[in-house]
Design brief:
mainly alpha; 3-stranded antiparallel β-sheet; 50% helix
Length: 405
Amino acid sequence: MSHIERLPVAVPLSADIEHRPDRAQPYRARVRWIEPHTKRRTSLSQSHGTEEQAQEWIDALSAAALRGIDPATSVQPLAAYGEANMALALRGLEPKTTDPYLAGWRLRVVPSLGHLPLPMVSNGAVDRSVYGWIADGCSRSTVKNSLAVLVRVMEQARRDGLIQSNPARVKGWQSEYHKAEDELDDPRSLALPDWAALTALADALVARSHGRFAGWGEVVVFAACTAARIGEVSGVRVRDIDPVNWIWTVRRQTTPSPGGLADKRTKGKVARRVPLIEEVRPLVAQRLLAVGPDPDARLFTGPRGGRITTAVLRDATRWDEVVARLGYEHLRRHDLRHTGLTWMADAGVPLHVLRKIAGHGSLATTQRYLHPDLRSITEAGRSLSAHLSVAVGPPKPPGAVRRVL
């Protein structure tokens, strides 16, 4: 459907609410109407937690029908509405602008919000999506383009009478992005201090999760010890692990896509090798035994065998609540990667090796992990003093140095 179908006259709806006490959402609201063109009887239904919510849903559809809007259209998902009306939403823009807008729609807006019915795309949902893009390391222009196309699509929905206001007009995201940039200038400040802090975090997350699923703690420890992204941890397969030399070849990562979660190439588009240190080897060996000999089996999954994302880990473990209680209010899932790289840098891993492990395209990115701490600065001063005391030595007697004419 290339446009919103406006009905020639207001369509009367018949509605009812059925109470089904054995369901998690016990109140099913249903509306029926007759299509004026086909004379076919059509219906829509949706379950709700309370009778008031069910009645609000019926009232919203009735109001849409009175304005001549097809009730089925008024509750369609954002992704479907956007695809059907994208040309109208982007009218007047040049191709050099529409190309990045469409990329933002496909790669960020649809995976984050596309499943929601239009009336459910709230200011809060948009806020969380935008801040999620910032936390995932998207560039400023990427966030701007993704938000701009969402604003245009939602504005078209407002003009069509499907929503009363545009929830995509987010304010303040630039300051949040500036804060993220400041943090990335010093990634060492985002790292956990030591192994004890890491294991305490992993245990606390497991304890807070539903069913105390131990796999969440394993994901956290593995990510920090390998300086990996959560998506890369989700993408590791049995055949990626070399249990003889204890090397992990990072080949893929799990990322959101329009069709759901998908495994794609790593962020740098190039496979890289990461050492598996002694502290994490028992964990890896246990996972290899648990998943069996299938080379394509995933090493880390959720409690039901599903793929893991940073959002899944956050929600399943009540991450924000746990890290605040432990005194790490700033800590995000990506900071586990900062932790691993900081520890490797402090252990004396050469810069060129650290860059290969991290998969950084720029050497300057890796160098940010080499900022010396106070102890290193103090030791550097002592070393210079020792060098000068040896170099200076006792003064030579007069006449010991001949002048060459």
